[in-house]
Amino acid sequence: AQRKVVFQSVDVDGTARTLREFVIGATPSVGMAISPTIGLVMRSGELHRVVFAGDSADAVVVPKTNGRYNGIVAVSPAGERVVLRHSADSTGDVQTLEVLTSDARPVATIETPFPIVGSMRMLPRGDQLVVFGLPSETEPEAALYLVDVTTKQSRKIAPIPLRQATGDLAVSPDGRTLLYTLTGTTSPRVFT
């Protein structure tokens, strides 16, 4: 038996319907919807754009790589861009961002100088995104970074205490304020 992915929709009344099924084969393979009509399917190391309606053939949007795809996806607030991340090879850090249009057409491939972890968020207009970066050869501490899709450059926004960061991230509607969560312990107190 082969592994498959089934794309379904459900309305708020609970009515579900199957949109389309695709055979994806052995792991690592995955599928994800990115709009009501289009999905991404990773199989045999290639990332394919698939259409839920009609009889159209899928299209390879990211060719076969020896890298590992991370399942976290960011979508711009208006839905015009999608970002995925992966490593260059099976043992490397996740440092590559693939930016696609909402219909899964390639926009940019961005190599970051740091490993990426946790959430990532696209800012309004879809031309910048914020990521959590781990310490690297060029940066000794974890930080939030602003990545420009057009220039493919990243800029450190603020250091983040790695052991306290939860990896979650939210962006204000205007894209000017970032919210994240830190954890910690309280100092012991003695009450007399």
Walk me through this protein's architecture:
- The protein is mainly β and 192 residues long.
- It is 0% helix and 52% strand.
- The protein is built from no helices and 16 strands.
- It has strands spanning 4-10, 16-23, 30-33, 38-43, 46-51, 59-62, 69-75, 81-87, 94-101, 106-111, 116-122, 128-133, 143-148, 154-159, 165-171, 178-182.
- A hairpin with a 5-residue loop joins strand 1 (4-10) and strand 2.
- 27% of the residues are buried.
Question: How does the SSE layout of this entry go?
Answer:
Elements: E1 4-10, E2 16-23, E3 30-33, E4 38-43, E5 46-51, E6 59-62, E7 69-75, E8 81-87, E9 94-101, E10 106-111, E11 116-122, E12 128-133, E13 143-148, E14 154-159, E15 165-171, E16 178-182
Antiparallel strand pairs: 1-2, 3-4, 4-5, 5-6, 7-8, 8-9, 9-10, 11-12, 12-13, 13-14, 15-16
